[in-house]
């Protein structure tokens, strides 16, 4: 157990938060010396019956921390200083834009004791649940669910496709990269809840935050329509998820699922699969009504024979980033039948 701790965090723009902690038996006295830009009164506070909280200190292994953590590439970096005494040894550690491996756990530990200091932002996303459901003919439906959890550090995917039919669950452990993925969603302007509407497909998002109420977006398509300036931000967020599951094709992560006027002037490329082949082939089209799962007629071989293939992916590209040269890419002849028909 530590004997005392003094900690400061901030910079000239954000102000500095400075606190001091002294434990004794099952109680802890902490002093707020500076509160940065927060409207928190300075002074001494005390909490009791927090033996479990004190025991968490051992997880940080302060003796293994370096004396200095510096990243000179960051403009206006966050600066921090930690002075603590443990087992009659005093440690003085500091950093500027760089942190030890246990940094997030350390801030969460401080946040438990003094949430008013907001060492963890109340707005930090702890988990998201992105759901997709589309009804086809004869009661057939497609369901996809993606959950990203900061605590579990994983992405859990559930797919229920009554057309094939198939049902599966996939878990991707992403460790500390969970911070990177959830940060993409924090950049989106989720300021108001959007209620459920009878959209088909229905795409919803449930967001759990650190110390603020959950946000429920009952229609991502409606939210994007009202917050068009965040369309690029949303594309980056779902694209980042896709990076961690290259073996899965998810409709809810497809650019085509969310695009509206943004696809005009772009080349539409469809990746199709013939039968049970594992290989995908690229074809062009100008038909914006085509969807993943549709069966299309395409030219095959050099003699112009017609084949039938299932669309597995749809992408919209500028001429300088098409997946295959435009002049060498054959075009889809037309729709053979819609998925589920």
Please characterize this protein's 3D structure.
By secondary structure, the chain is mainly beta. It has 3 domains: 2-117, Mago nashi protein; 125-258, 2-Layer Sandwich (Mago nashi protein), CATH 3.30.1560; 264-337, no CATH class. The protein has 6 helices and 18 strands. The protein has helices at residues 51-55, 103-113, 178-186, 220-226, 231-243, 255-258; strands at 2-11, 15-24, 27-35, 43-48, 68-70, 79-86, 89-96, 125-135, 141-149, 154-161, 166-173, 202-209, 215-217, 267-273, 281-285, 295-300, 305-317, 334-337. The chain has a 7-stranded mixed beta sheet with strand order 4-3-2-1-6-7-5, with no helix packed on it. A 6-stranded antiparallel beta sheet has the order 11-10-9-8-12-13. α3 (178-186) runs antiparallel to α5 (231-243). The longest helix is centred in the last third of the chain and has 13 residues, at 231-243. 17% of the residues are buried.
Primary descriptors:
Mago nashi protein; about 350 residues; six-stranded antiparallel sheet; mainly beta; 3 domains; single chain; seven-stranded mixed sheet
What is the strand and helix layout of this fold?
Elements: E1 2-11, E2 15-24, E3 27-35, E4 43-48, H1 51-55, E5 68-70, E6 79-86, E7 89-96, H2 103-113, E8 125-135, E9 141-149, E10 154-161, E11 166-173, H3 178-186, E12 202-209, E13 215-217, H4 220-226, H5 231-243, H6 255-258, E14 267-273, E15 281-285, E16 295-300, E17 305-317, E18 334-337
Parallel strand pairs: 5-7
Antiparallel strand pairs: 1-2, 1-6, 2-3, 3-4, 6-7, 8-9, 8-12, 9-10, 10-11, 12-13, 14-15, 14-17, 16-17, 16-18
Helix pairs in contact: 3-5
């Amino acid at each position: 157990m530590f004997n005392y701790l003094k900690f400061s965090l901030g910079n000239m723009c954000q102000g500095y938060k400075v606190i001091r902690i002294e434990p004794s038996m099952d109680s802890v006295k902490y002093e707020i010396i500076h509160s940065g830009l927060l409207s928190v009164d300075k002074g001494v506070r005390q909490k009791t019956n927090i033996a479990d909280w004190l025991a968490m200190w051992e997880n940080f292994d302060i003796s293994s921390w370096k004396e200095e953590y510096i990243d000179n590439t960051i403009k206006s970096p966050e600066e921090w200083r930690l002075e603590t005494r443990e087992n009659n040894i005093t440690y003085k550690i500091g950093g500027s834009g760089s942190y030890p491996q246990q940094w997030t756990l350390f801030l969460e530990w401080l946040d438990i004791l003094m949430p008013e200091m907001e060492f963890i932002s109340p707005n930090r996303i702890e988990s998201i649940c992105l759901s997709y459901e589309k009804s086809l003919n004869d009661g057939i439906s497609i369901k996809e669910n993606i959950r990203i959890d900061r605590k579990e550090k994983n992405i859990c995917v559930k797919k229920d496709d009554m057309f094939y039919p198939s049902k599966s669950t996939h878990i991707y452990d992403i460790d500390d990269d969970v911070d990177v993925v959830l940060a993409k969603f924090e950049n989106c302007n989720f300021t108001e809840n959007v209620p459920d509407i009878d959209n088909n497909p229905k795409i919803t998002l449930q967001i759990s935050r650190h110390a603020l109420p959950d946000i429920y977006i009952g229609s991502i398509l409606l939210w994007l329509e009202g917050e068009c300036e965040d369309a690029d931000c949303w594309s980056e967020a779902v694209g980042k998820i896709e990076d961690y599951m290259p073996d899965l094709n998810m409709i809810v992560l497809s650019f085509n699922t969310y695009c509206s006027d943004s696809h005009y002037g772009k080349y539409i490329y469809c990746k199709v699969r013939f039968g049970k082949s594992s290989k995908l082939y690229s074809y062009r089209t100008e038909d914006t009504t085509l969807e993943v799962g549709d069966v299309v007629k395409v030219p095959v071989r050099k003699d112009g024979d017609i084949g039938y293939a299932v669309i597995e992916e749809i992408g919209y590209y500028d001429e300088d980033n098409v997946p295959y040269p435009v002049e060498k890419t054959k075009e889809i002849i037309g729709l053979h039948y819609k998925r589920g028909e």
